[in-house]
Design a protein that fits this description.
With 83 residues, this protein is mainly alpha-helical. It folds into two domains: 45 residues, no CATH class; 36 residues. Helix content is 57%, strand content 0%.
Amino acid sequence: MDEDGADALSMGNLAQRLDSGTATLYRHFTGRADLVAQVVDGVLADAHLDDEATDGMAWQQACTTLAHSLFDVFAAIPTLHRC
């Protein structure tokens, strides 16, 4: 996805890049939508709030802190720079 963008992600393309078969991928993902959801989950997992850092913080400030973390994560994705 970093090289070709999200539109190029398919079970067939991924299987080819992994030197595998699509049947192998379907053991782990129900289809492209599930694969994309897992990729998004993986990206969003990088944006998190440390409980200790936000302890006692108002919810509004915690939301702002999370937004900054999300921005940093998305800014690190090469294909988003081409948008």
